[in-house]
Structures are given as structure tokens and as C-alpha cells.
Write a structure and sequence with these properties.
Elements (H helix, E strand, L loop, with lengths): L7 E6 L2 H11 L3 E5 L8 E8 L2 E8 L3 E5 L6 E3 L6 E5 L2 E5 L5 E3 L1
Antiparallel strand pairs: 1-3, 2-5, 3-4, 6-9, 7-8
């Protein structure tokens, strides 16, 4: 018996409203603000879900602010390029390529 495929979502978009809708549906509610050039806005998102675990790859084409809450869940981010500033529970950190941040 062949294993059934994992649920997957892939999004390539230049539409901020579409990004908000998909990210909220697939991950958790997001408030997104474009910090860079709005004309350059674009996203590449790929998420695979395995039971209660979502594993995803995300790339924005311009600097962004992402605000989200995920009570009862953990989130781990590992930038592959460039800096990622994060604040959670009153603590702030700037992670670089390969340095993970974890939140609950």
C-alpha cells in the first residue's frame, strides 16, 4: 500500500492580501507590513503538514514585518540569508543565517 502524499501548500504571489489569507489559513493569523519597496513585494512559500507539525520555507522579496500569535504552539525560524529581527515576550534578538529563533 503506497503512502498518501503529505498535505502541501505552495504560494508564489505579489498580492499582499492573498499572502495574508494563505498564511493565516496554513500557519496562523498574520499581520504583514511591507517595510521595503512595495513595488518589489513578492513571496515564495512552501509548507508541508505532517500531523500537528508544519514545515515551511518562506522568502520575501523585500523587507517585511510579520506580527503573529500562536498560543499553544511553538515556532522555530532559521534564516538562510540576511538578518531576521524577532521580538517575543519582551525579548528581542537578531538572527543571521543558520541561527534559529524559537517561540512559544
Amino acid at each position: 500500500m503506497a503512502a498518501s502524499p503529505l498535505p502541501e501548500v505552495t504560494l508564489h504571489s505579489h498580492d499582499l492580501d492573498e499572502t495574508r489569507e494563505v498564511a493565516t489559513r496554513v500557519l496562523h493569523p498574520h499581520r504583514l507590513t511591507v517595510l521595503g519597496d512595495p513595488a518589489r513585494y513578492g513571496i515564495a512559500l512552501h509548507v508541508v503538514t505532517l500531523g500537528p507539525l508544519n514545515i515551511g520555507w518562506l522568502r520575501y522579496d523585500t523587507p517585511m514585518r510579520i506580527e503573529s500569535e500562536h498560543p499553544g504552539h511553538y515556532q522555530v525560524n532559521v534564516p538562510t540569508a540576511g538578518p531576521m529581527a524577532a521580538t517575543s515576550g519582551g525579548r528581542s534578538v537578531v538572527a543571521g543565517a543558520g541561527l534559529a529563533t524559537a517561540y512559544n
